[in-house]
Design a protein that fits this description.
346 residues; homodimer; alpha/beta; N/Namide_PRibTrfase (chains A, B); elongated
Chain lengths: 346, 346
């Protein structure tokens, strides 16, 4: 049934919101304005999901919170079913390892130069660890390619350098230090440093919200604004999850048998944690923003947050992508994300 | 590209083969004949995957090794693309928790009786832990329902009782002991006990090959043949995997640039483990059955196991489901599965 298919978009959208929360938090602390958050985590999960249909569903769920994506199938789904006009996620021209390595090891600098030169009007992303990342940043981007980078910047476009191996925090910090030594930096009103606006670091490689939080914390401690780094994620956004991730189990709670209403529930003695909710359920939110479920019909119907969307094959509420995005905006009523992550650790 | 889509079926089929290996191993030790293996792990993963398309691809990959499945989409795919006739996987009539709990807690025994009575010609599976699993087995299946179970058995059909919570090994062992005390057991030629042929235990709930191996080892130590238990798995068969599970990364290794052949590879200094293979590659198998990859064109072309399947949009080799299943049969050249699992733990 359609019910058994909702765990996946629901789980992606929830994890995706935690990701945005983390970015939001550090942007507020080190930059002041969190509105950049939807552009700082790029969905590169197309190749990492189990099918094209999953790519479409997962990417669309992620696009509720983010607007940076290479998983085009997500935009197609939102245009078809959620009245989206235009595109759901934006991208730029980036090199993969094979774009660099197929030039041959001796020609690495020519590969990067080619990417920048042939993309004069757009932001570009260059993978820099095909061989020796430090040589690449010091001598190529900070040396032979420097004029090209500056010219790209003068035209209003960004060059992102992408490390793709090693310890995330150590590598990113060292990348920033090298780029600062070659291109300088500015300090913002909150006292955090920013590379020139035409330079940024793009970090993928096994990224999830915990790793993102650890990188941004290290950047903060070292005086760097979180705007110096954009992240990319694939499997962690769209594949590494299952029904256990958010404990998505659907159980019958109520039935009418021969005219008689009965509460339905399971309560296995070998695992009390699997006891299910019983009777008519309703969902409520108090003034502090906390959610709770009322069982056995005890909830106030007038404040029930559950609503019927599908009924007997009919779509009763046709939400647009814009409405859903608006509803998902992070507000002061939301949880303290760092406190939440620490709780999960304990 | 189609290349980026192969990691998923490839990973499912590999994990699935490890599952069959484990069953094969314990059937050989405690029963003598491993040919039952393809029927002892049931795919109930449809609700646990991220889309219908993923269900089809994953279930089809699993059906290379198994013939027990509720994920009908897998059969549809094999019929459409791999010349399968008939069905790929068989099933029986089983209750879910809601089938039992919607009768009301007081009517549990009636729910089980209903399932057995209304399915006279087929094997049935009864989930027994909705409330008190021991009460259910002792007093219902071993008491009030005993005559029904015996009659079902006389007609040549099996009643499987399905625990679904608690510690796998402890719960299964106790289930077997209770059923033995009520229905007796027989000892096979290898000295292992078997419940009467019309009775079996079906174990799902978070099953994977490690848990399956631990359950079968405990059964063996306690004198029970592995034929007393059938397993079910959902997420572990079809969802809990990603490109990192088997390190499925596709890298360019060879290119011809302006007529010149070059070896293409990456070798990041921040993670030597990510160094990729270079040049023309070929795949070889020695007399002991060990596989190896030859790089830079050094392999003997005549013994290369790689073959072209798709080329320029054309399907050059059209394998049938039967051929693939035949190729995947476990032989004496295969690894020692318990040794392999122990290696993975260290």
């Amino acid at each position: 049934t359609v019910l058994s298919q909702v765990w996946y978009p629901l789980t992606v959208a929830t994890i995706s919101r935690i990701n945005k929360h983390v970015l939001h938090h550090y942007l507020t602390l080190t930059h002041g304005d969190p509105s950049l958050a939807p552009f700082l985590l790029h969905d590169c999960g197309y190749r990492g999901v189990s099918s094209v249909e999953s790519a479409a569903i997962g990417a669309a769920a992620n696009l509720i919170h983010f607007q940076s994506s290479d998983t085009v199938a997500g935009t197609c789904l939102l245009r078809k079913y959620y009245h989206l006009e235009g595109v759901g996620g934006y991208s730029c021209n980036c090199s993969e390892h094979s774009c660099v390595t197929s030039w041959g090891r001796d020609q690495e600098v020519a590969a990067h130069a080619h990417l920048i030169k042939t993309n004069p009007g757009v932001d570009v992303g260059c993978v820099v660890d095909s061989y020796d990342i430090w040589h690449c940043l010091e001598d190529m981007f900070g040396g032979e390619l420097k004029e090209l980078v500056l010219e790209h910047g003068k035209n209003g476009h960004v060059v992102a350098v992408r490390p793709d191996s090693g310890d995330h925090c150590t590598v990113i910090l060292k990348c920033l230090d090298i780029l600062e030594s070659k291109f300088g930096s500015e300090t913002n009103s909150l006292g955090y440093k920013r590379l020139p606006p035409y330079l940024t670091v793009a970090q993928g490689d096994g990224m999830d919200y915990r790793k993102m939080a650890s990188v941004l914390e290290v950047l903060k401690k070292n005086g760097w604004s979180s705007t110096n780094v954009g992240f990319g994620a694939g499997a962690a956004l769209l594949q590494k999850m299952d029904r256990d991730t958010l404990k998505c189990a659907f159980k019958c709670s109520f039935a009418v048998v021969e005219g008689k209403e009965i509460n339905v529930y399971k309560q296995p003695i070998t695992d009390p944690g699997k006891t299910s909710k019983k009777g008519r359920l309703s969902l409520h939110r108090d003034e502090e923003g906390n959610w709770s479920t009322a069982q056995e019909g005890t909830g106030d119907k007038d404040t029930d947050q559950l609503m019927t969307v599908f009924e007997n094959g009919e779509l009763l509420r046709d939400f647009t992508c814009d409405e859903i995005r608006q509803r998902a905006v992070i507000t002061p009523q939301d949880i303290d994300i760092i406190h939440f992550l620490n709780q999960q650790d304990n």
